[in-house]
Every structure is written in structure tokens, then in C-alpha cells.
Amino acid sequence: MNSLHTTHERKLELQHGQEVATFAGGCFWGMEDLIRKIPGVIDTEVGYSGGVTKNPVYESVKVGNTGHAEAIQVIYDPKIVSFEQLLEWFWKIHDPTTPNRQGNDRGSQYRSIVFYHNDDQLRAAEKVRSEMQKRWPSPIVTELIAAKPFYSAEKAHQDYLEKNPGGYTCHWVRNI
Predict the structure, then answer these.
(1) Considering the domain boundaries, does residue 168 fall inside one?
(2) CATH classification at residue 37
(3) Range of 60's domain?
(4) What distance in Å separates the CA atoms of residue 135 and residue 97, rounded to the nearest whole number?
(5) Is residue 175 part of a domain?
(6) Which residues are CB-neighbours of 170 under 8 A, at least 6 positions away?
(7) What percent of the chain has pLDDT over 70?
(8) Where are the beta strands (DSSP E) in the chain?
(9) pTM of the predicted model, to two decimals?
(10) Beta strands across the sheet bearing 143-146
(11) More confident residue, 9 or 96
(12) Which pLDDT tens digit goes with each residue over 115-140?
């Protein structure tokens, strides 16, 4: 069992045979709500990654003061869902062609990023991004960045749309 991070109250634990993926694609509430429903996804957690501030908090991230993006960390079973399949979902549930924006949310904290955890994930992300680019009418601006420290968001943000089914989201599965 490996701990992936240790901030705030919650932390995902990686069990034998499981793998981790980390994505940023706009508001983390909607990303988490859709990704958690994919067969083979074991657990999800929302948080912050890609910035310079240690132990960022929502109040600083939401105004763009930390350099972090709202992100989701995913524990999955690769025997049920591959990293490539997760990437296809990722590129279908947000608009990867809008820099620093998803829906009404604007700012670098809403940028599109695949945080790859190893060379295999990087190669898969390059391949799937290229395939997905053929489906999108505008250039995909998603960054591919080596995984950075992931800081768990505050408890109120975890499982937000399950606790608040009428809450805001700018994510949906696109027919791409």
C-alpha cells in the first residue's frame, strides 16, 4: 500500500495491481462526478497540482495565486479500464481546446493537463491526444506534464456533486 500524498484529511491509497492517473480539466467537481462512474475506477479525489505553493488552499487556488490547477487523482484497475480509455473519457468530458477555461470558469487553475506518472503514460497521452485531435475542430491545448505533488482539496470539495446533486458543473460527455 502506497500513500500518494498526505495533505488535508483525505488521501488515496494505492493497492497492489492498481494504478494512478491525474488529470486537470476545469472545475474538479464535474470531472470527479463523471470519472468516478467509469467501470474500473476504484476511487477518486479532487485537489490541486501543477503549482508552486506548498499545501495550497481553495481560497488561493481559485483566484490563481498558486499556479495550481484544479485536478482529480484517479485510482483504477488496469485489468478493467486502461489508461488510454481513461484518457479518451478525459478528452470527451471537457473542452481541451480552450486555454485556461472551462465553461464559465476562467483562469489558469482551470487549464487542461495530463499529469503523467511514468513514460508509458506519457506515450499513451501523446498517442491518444493525437487521435482525439482528429475529432476536435480546434487545436487541443492540453499540457502533458510529469506528475507534480498532488494536494488534496478540502473535505467540502470531495464528492461535491454527490452531496450537492444540483451543484454547478460545466462537464458532460461529448459525442466526439
Answers:
(1) no
(2) 3.30.1060.10
(3) 2-159
(4) 11
(5) no
(6) 26, 27, 30, 94, 102, 103, 104, 105
(7) 94
(8) 2-3, 13-14, 19-25, 41-49, 69-76, 101-102, 105-106, 112-116, 143-146, 151-152
(9) 0.90
(10) 143-146, 112-116, 19-25, 69-76, 41-49, 151-152
(11) 96
(12) 999 999 999 999 999 999 999 999 99
Q: How many domains does the chain have?
A: 1
Q: Which residues contact 65 (CB under 8 A, 6 or more apart)?
A: 53
In one-letter notation, the amino acid at residue 83 is: F
Report pLDDT for 151. 97
Which of 4, 20, 21, 27 is labelled catalytic? 27
Task: Return the residue matching grid coordinates 499545501.
Answer: 55
Nearest Cα to 28, choosing from 83, 68, 65?
68
- Amino acid in position 139: P
**Are 60 and 106 a contacting pair, CB within 8 Å?**
no
Angle, in degrees to the nearest 10, between helices 83-93 and 119-133? 40
The answer to whether 2 touches 20, Cβ cutoff 8 Å, is no
DSSP 8-class letter at 60: H
Could you confirm whether 27 is annotated as catalytic?
Answer: yes
